[in-house]
Structure to design on (384 residues):
C-alpha cells in the first residue's frame, strides 16, 4: 500500500477549502433558502432579499481586487469579503461546485484536464472544451453521466451566459436542468438579467469571463486594469436593473498568479518516472510509469527532491486524506486523477510537453495559494 505523502519541507501551508463554511459550494444552496434563513456569513444585503442576481466573474481573485480597489469603486464598496474556492482552483471544478452546490469529490469534476476512457484506451479530457486527442469526447463521455447532479438543486434557474457556451459538453455537465438565456455582447447581459428579474425569477445566475481571459493573455498590467474597470461598470449596470427588494451578489471561481516564462516542462529526473500527465500547470498530476506502489513512491520521492522547495508534493491518498476535494474519492472519480500531485506555491508552473497551448498563458491558477484560493463574495441590495 502506498504511504501517504504530503511535502512537509515547504512553507507556507496550503489553503484547504472550507467546504462546510464560507465556500463556493455553499453559495447557491444558501441563496435557495428563504429570505431570513440564509447563512450568517453571507453579505448582509442577501439576508432578506426576495430576488438575487448572482454574477460569477471568472478569475476575479479577492487579493487582486483588494489591491486595485481604486479601479473598481462599485465592487470594492459592496458589503462582504473573501471566501474560499475549491481545489483545484480552476474554472471547470469551481463552476460545477457553484451550480450543483457540492464538493469536487461528490460531483467528480476534479480538474481542468482529467483522465477518461477513450476509444482506444485512457485519454486526457479537456473538460472546458470536452475534447480529448481523439476529438469531440461526447460520443464516448456523456456529460450527464460524467457529472450526474442537477444544477441549482433541480430548480429551473435561468443562466445568463455567452451564447457560444450553450450546448457544449461542459455546459451540459454543470448546468443540467437550468434555463439558458444567452447574450452575445456584454451590454446584453444586464438586459437579460432585467427581463428575468422583472418576470419574478427568485434567483438568476450570470457568468462573465472577461477578467480571466485578459489575465491569461496579458498578465497583470494595463490590460488587466482596464478590464477590471470595465467589470466594475458592468456591475454598476446590473445594480441599475435590480427591482425593489432584489440584490446583486458577486463572486468568482478563482484568483490568479502571474507566472509568465517561469512555466517549464518537467525535469528529466521526474519525467523519466512519469508515464503521462493530467491536470494543469499549477495543479499537475503525474501518472507513475509502470504502476504499483513502488513506482508511485519513487515518483513522489523524485518530485519532492526536485520541486520540494517550490511546490507541495502529494500522493492522491494524501490529497484525499487532507480533504482537498471535500470527501472520499470513489473509484470512478479516483480514476480521473494521477498518482502524485505537483502543486506550486511559488509563481511557477509545470507544463505538459504534449499540450503546446499551455505555453502561451501569462497568469495561471489551480494551486492552493491565497492569490488563487480567496475569491470575493459581496452584495448590494435595492432598498424598498
Amino acid at each position: 500500500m502506498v504511504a501517504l505523502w504530503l511535502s512537509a519541507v515547504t512553507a507556507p501551508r496550503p489553503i484547504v477549502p472550507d467546504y462546510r463554511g464560507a465556500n463556493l459550494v455553499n453559495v447557491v444552496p444558501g441563496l435557495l433558502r428563504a429570505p431570513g434563513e440564509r447563512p450568517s456569513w453571507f453579505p448582509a444585503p442577501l439576508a432578506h432579499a426576495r430576488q438575487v442576481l448572482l454574477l460569477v466573474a471568472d478569475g476575479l481573485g479577492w487579493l487582486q481586487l483588494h489591491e486595485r480597489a481604486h479601479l473598481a469603486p462599485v465592487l470594492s464598496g459592496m458589503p462582504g469579503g473573501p471566501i474560499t474556492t475549491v481545489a483545484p482552483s480552476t474554472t471547470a471544478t469551481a463552476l460545477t461546485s457553484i451550480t450543483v452546490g457540492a464538493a469536487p469529490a461528490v460531483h467528480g469534476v476534479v480538474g481542468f484536464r482529467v483522465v477518461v476512457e477513450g476509444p482506444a484506451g485512457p485519454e486526457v479530457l479537456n473538460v472546458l472544451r470536452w475534447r480529448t486527442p481523439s476529438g469531440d469526447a461526447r460520443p464516448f463521455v456523456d456529460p450527464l453521466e460524467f457529472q450526474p447532479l442537477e444544477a441549482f438543486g433541480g430548480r429551473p434557474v435561468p443562466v445568463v451566459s455567452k451564447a457560444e457556451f450553450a450546448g457544449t459538453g461542459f455546459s451540459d455537465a454543470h448546468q443540467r436542468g437550468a434555463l439558458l438565456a444567452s447574450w452575445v455582447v456584454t451590454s446584453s447581459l444586464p438586459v437579460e438579467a432585467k427581463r428575468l428579474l422583472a418576470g419574478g425569477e427568485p434567483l438568476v445566475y450570470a457568468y462573465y469571463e472577461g477578467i480571466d481571459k485578459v489575465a491569461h493573455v496579458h498578465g497583470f498590467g494595463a490590460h488587466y486594469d482596464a478590464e477590471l474597470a470595465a467589470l466594475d461598470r458592468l456591475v454598476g449596470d446590473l445594480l441599475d436593473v435590480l427591482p425593489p427588494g432584489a440584490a446583486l451578489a458577486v463572486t468568482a471561481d478563482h484568483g490568479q498568479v502571474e507566472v509568465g516564462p517561469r512555466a517549464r516542462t518537467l525535469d528529466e529526473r521526474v519525467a523519466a518516472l512519469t508515464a503521462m500527465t493530467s491536470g494543469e500547470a499549477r495543479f499537475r498530476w503525474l501518472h507513475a510509469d509502470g504502476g504499483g506502489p513502488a513506482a508511485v513512491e519513487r515518483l513522489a520521492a523524485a518530485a519532492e527532491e526536485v520541486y520540494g522547495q517550490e511546490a507541495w508534493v502529494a500522493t492522491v491518498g494524501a490529497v484525499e486524506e487532507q480533504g482537498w476535494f471535500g470527501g472520499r474519492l470513489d473509484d470512478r472519480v479516483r480514476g480521473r486523477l494521477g498518482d502524485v500531485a505537483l502543486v506550486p506555491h511559488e509563481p511557477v508552473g509545470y507544463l505538459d510537453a504534449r499540450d503546446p497551448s499551455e505555453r502561451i498563458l501569462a497568469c495561471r491558477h489551480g494551486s492552493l495559494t491565497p492569490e488563487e484560493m480567496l475569491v470575493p463574495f459581496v452584495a448590494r441590495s435595492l432598498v424598498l
About this structure: The mean pLDDT is 94. The CA atoms of residues 30 and 271 lie 44 Å apart.
